[in-house]
Amino acid sequence: MNVMSSFSLEGKVAVVIGGSGLYGRQVTSALIEAGATTYITTRNRGKIDDLEKEFQEVGQQVTVAYLDQSKEETIIKFTNNLIDKEGKIDILVNNAVGRVMNGWNDSTEKFAQSMDINATGIYSLTKTFGNVMEKQRYGSIIQVGSMQGMVGPDDWLYEGNFDASPDYFFHKSGMINFTRYVASYYGKSNVRCNCISPGGILSHRTSKDFVERYNTRTMLNRMANASDLKGIIVFLASDASAYITGANIPVDGGYTAK
């Protein structure tokens, strides 16, 4: 196989859980651009038509469907419907995250709610789709973690306004070792599982002062942009990474390497 053709996703069926956020949109676009038939999910039923139109406006075809990762029955229903329609699932990107807590002293109930979405939900998604891939004897699962699963929070970035919640660090760190477990469990069936750990992404919500401080923490002296995740997603989704599984790959401009 020509090395460039190994990056193609033509004929593949991909699902992005949470494909409408800052990371999700570029993940979804990358899969579409590489040739995959792409589905994205949302917890908000009212956004389905609007999301499809937004992608259509930039010339990209995507199917949007309802799925709430805190409710396993919606995961199973979506998976069954997808298999009925497409006959297979080649790529799963677990990108959705529920922002529940607002800091260390938030309620324990909110911590439990966050785990239900962001830990139990990831297990349910990975198991449901992974078992389908196991029967197919092919598939690539990509967990979207965070560099915050690799390091502790840096209060200096927020100038004393400690803006970090413990649940996020808990489940993003756990996602890395969960990836290794999944890779080991499904490896004999030629199903791969890898994790990426992105850094901060520049958006309209990031203040100039924060950007300047954050940039000093990276080796590339900048935050991530709207395309920096595309390459790694296509690489891990495609046969170009056929011998890579159980890996966690930082995509953070060198933040965690300092």
Describe this entry's structure for a reader:
41% of the residues lie in helices and 14% in strands. It has 7 helices and 7 strands; from the N terminus they run E-H-E-H-E-H-E-H-E-H-E-H-H-E. Strands 3-2-1-4-5-6-7 form a 7-stranded parallel sheet, with helices on both faces. Helix 1 packs across helix 7 and helix 3 runs parallel beside helix 4. It is globular.
Summarize the structure.
With 258 residues, the chain is of the alpha/beta class. The protein is 41% helix and 14% strand. The chain is built from 7 helices and 7 strands.
What descriptors fit this protein?
alpha/beta, globular, 14% strand, 258 residues, 7 strands
Distance between the termini: 37 Å
Please give the largest β-sheet.
7 strands, parallel
Shape type: globular
Contiguous helical run count: 7
Order of helices and strands: EHEHEHEHEHEHHE
Q: Class by helix and strand content?
A: alpha/beta
Query: What portion of residues belong to β-strands?
Result: 5-15%
**What is Rg?**
18 Å
Low-confidence stretches: none
What order do the strands of the largest sheet run in, or round the barrel if closed?
3-2-1-4-5-6-7
Average pLDDT taken over every residue: 95
Helix content: 40-55%
